[in-house]
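Researcher: I'd like a structural prediction for the single chain below. Treat it as a standalone chain; there are no partners to consider.
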Amino acid sequence: MEQSKKIINKVVNYKKYKRVPVLHYPDREWPDKEIEHAPLWCSVDLRDGNQALIDPMNVEEKMEMFQLLLKLGFKQIEIGFPAASQIEYDFLRKLVDENMIPDDVQVQVLTQCREHLIDRTFEAIQGIKNVIVHIYNSTSVLQRDVVFHKDKEAIKQIAIDGTKMVKERAAKFDGNIQLEYSPESFTGTEVEFALDICTAVQDIWQPTPENKIIFNLPATVEMNTPNVYADQIEWMHKHFKNRDSIILSVHPHNDRGTGIAATELSLLAGADRVEGTLFGNGERTGNIDVLNVAYNMFSQGIDPKLNIENIKEIIDVYERCCKMDIDMRHPYAGKLVFTAFSGSHQDAINKGVHALHERNTGIWEVPYLPIDPADIGREYEPVVRINSQSGKGGVAFVMESMYGYKLPKEMHKEFADVIQKMSEQQGGEIAPEQIFDAFKHEYIALDDPFEFKKIRVEDVNDKDCVTTIDFEYKKKPYHIDAKRNGPLDAVKTAINKEFDLDIRVLNYSEHALGSGSHARAAAYIQMKDNRTGKGLFGAGDSSNITKATIRAFFSGLNRLANK
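Model: Treating it as a single chain, here is the predicted structure.
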């Protein structure tokens, strides 16, 4: 017992950590801005994403991923680190030799600021029309101290030397070279020093508004809240010289779980370009998911400038090439993100879809569904999932959206109770087909003790008709004629008289199941046994509306008899 108390009272050792300093920047303007257009997108799936895989992609898988990225509309794709890996070198050459790189696409290659690596990189890119050469070196306080043991000037000199080497080789290159420089671990770097080192690179490269340089400011490790990253980005955005000659790029990671927020805030803060991966693949907790950001824009009526309408295809290629599964709760892509288990949520979705069709404004507004699943290749069928926590609205929605049965509102709870009891008995989720089977068993297929056989109706005058009904009661055949003002009234009256019952019809409704000349009909009858006080629904279907109605009446009779 004493040992248990010690464990309970133990305090996590938070004092071994210190707060990362924040930028004091009261002049920030990004909180008052809105995202109005998509950034330049750069996929780093084949580099940052691939290097983080347990089982990295082979050449064939890389080729399939590359083709997918082209299909999605990426115009900048980081291929890899061809100077450091023979596989990546060979893959790049395969793209060149087989003429796989479209003229309007820039491939991006990464290299450290070392001469032999830069030379090897330029060997790899020979024959490519448009190339981004991406150089980097780590600039953070911590890495300067414990990794490189160099002061600021020595770190800056690495960037200067790398830029000079690229510029010398670019002058002899038969193609278009754009320089990208990253002060790696930017989030742990003093903004004044980050600006100083970028300016030194800029002075050597001499970019112009027509031939811009890319300054990529990565959250190599996410170190603070997203607003701090936004402050850092805006500070750099406002302090860069010749800003019109610069593309300000961000490369967020997700170490604190706020990478998407950091990305979106950085766009408010002045970023022009985003580097990321499909579904957030990447080192540790991953890069930011470019699809997530793009779908977020799409959901706000902004053109994401990517072809993201078929998420199923994207998932298939990603899972096959990366050998990783998409989490069921992953935004937009997860199997459960367009589902609702809560009864109140299901009811709201059902009502929202009906209101959407009635209003016909062309604007998507449905509770709990920020986008139309159909717009990204998802289906309505899995929108509502049923378990013991589900309510009447969800069950009714499944019956209507998947099977066409528009249950009367008063019937929703009655049938939902049936499904809830079934869920509690078997545990877990009830599949739509199970719900439909339960509906047929509970209403449609009942034939005990009454079994309907056939009906014939003849009009006598404008008000009355003669109805002949054939049925069995406990397997005994009956043939009854009745004259009333309609088939339902006639059958009800005849049954009450023949079996000394007092059954009353409270409500009746019907609708077509589908459309066209071969459409079936569904009918629902709310009934009450005046002697017992029992009240419930019967349901029936048929190719003939009169037969559907009579079957609904017999359904209710059997349910009253068996309750």
